C-alpha cells in the first residue's frame, strides 16, 4: 500500500468516551497565532495620527536606511498561514533595495 497508518498519537488509546474526549480537548486545546499589523503601512501624512509607520516600500518614516519586510506591515491577519505572503513581501522589498527604490 502507498500508506499505512500507525497507532493513534493523540489523544491516545486511553481516551475513548465522549466525556474523556471533551476533557482532553479542554485540557490540551490552545491557539496559535501569527502577530501581524503592528507596524502600519501607509502614507507619510498618516504618521502623526499613528496610522502609518512604513511606506509601501517598507521604509520606516523618520529613519534613514531602515526597512521592515515582515508580517507586521500587513493591514490585517491573513486567513491562512502568512509564510508565503511574507516571502512575497520580502522579495518585493529586496527588489526595491537592489534597484535603488
β-strand percent reads: under 5%
Q: For the CA atoms, what is the radius of gyration?
A: 22 Å
**Main β-sheet, in a few words?**
none
What is the tally of beta strands? 0
Straight-line distance between termini: 54 Å
| Topology order in helix (H) and strand (E) letters | HH
**Secondary-structure content class:** mainly alpha
Number of helical regions: 2
Helix content: 25-40%
Global outline: elongated
Low-confidence segments: none
Q: What is the arithmetic mean of pLDDT?
A: 91
Domain Glucose-methanol-choline oxidoreductase C-terminal: 8-90
InterPro entries: FAD/NAD-bd_sf, GMC_OxRdtase, GMC_OxRtase_C
Family: Belongs to the GMC oxidoreductase family.
GO molecular function: flavin adenine dinucleotide binding; oxidoreductase activity, acting on CH-OH group of donors
Describe the 3D structure.
- The chain is mostly helical.
- The protein has a domain at 44-98.
- The protein contains two helices and no strands.
- The protein has helices spanning 18-28, 83-98.
- The longest helix has 16 residues, at 83-98.
- The chain is elongated, with a radius of gyration of 22 Å.
- 8% of the residues are buried.
- The model has no long low-confidence stretch (mean pLDDT 91).
Amino acid at each position: 500500500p502507498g500508506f499505512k497508518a500507525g497507532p493513534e498519537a493523540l489523544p491516545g488509546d486511553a481516551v475513548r468516551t465522549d466525556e474523556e474526549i471533551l476533557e482532553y480537548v479542554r485540557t490540551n486545546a490552545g491557539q496559535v497565532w501569527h502577530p501581524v499589523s503592528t507596524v502600519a503601512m501607509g502614507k507619510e501624512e498618516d504618521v502623526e495620527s499613528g496610522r502609518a509607520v512604513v511606506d509601501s516600500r517598507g521604509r520606516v518614516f523618520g529613519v534613514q536606511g531602515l526597512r521592515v519586510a515582515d508580517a507586521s506591515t500587513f493591514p490585517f491577519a491573513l486567513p491562512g498561514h502568512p509564510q508565503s505572503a511574507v516571502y512575497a513581501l520580502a522579495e518585493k522589498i529586496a527588489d526595491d533595495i537592489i534597484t535603488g527604490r
